[in-house]
What does this fold into?
Amino acid sequence: MTTRRQADGTIVVDVRGSLDAATVDAVRETLTGTLQRERPVALIVDLTFVVFMDSMGVGMLVSGFNTARETGTRFVLRNPSEFVHHQLRVTGLAEMFGLPPSSSSTQSFTP
It folds into this structure.
C-alpha cells in the first residue's frame, strides 16, 4: 500500500492484494489516520490491484467513507475490479460509493 499527494491536495492510497482479516486493520489505520491528520479535499482509494475483498474489506471501506464524511473529505473508490464491484453491489453499497450499478463496459451514461 502506498500513499501519495497530488498537486491539487488530493491524497491517493493505492491498495494491493486482498482486503480481508489479515490486512484491513492496516488499511483502515492508513485511511483514518490520513483523513484525520491531513484533512484532504479528496481521498482516492485506488483498488486497481485488489484481487479479493471479503466482508471485513467492505466494512473497512465503509469506515473510511464515514471518517471522510466526518472530516468533510470527498471519498472516492477508483478502479474497483469486477470482483470488488460485485461485492459492493451485492451488499447494496455500490451507489453509496458513487459506483454505477454495473461495471459492464457496455453501459453508457448520458449527461
About this structure: Residues 2-90 form a domain with the Transcription Regulator spoIIAA fold (CATH 3.30.750.24).
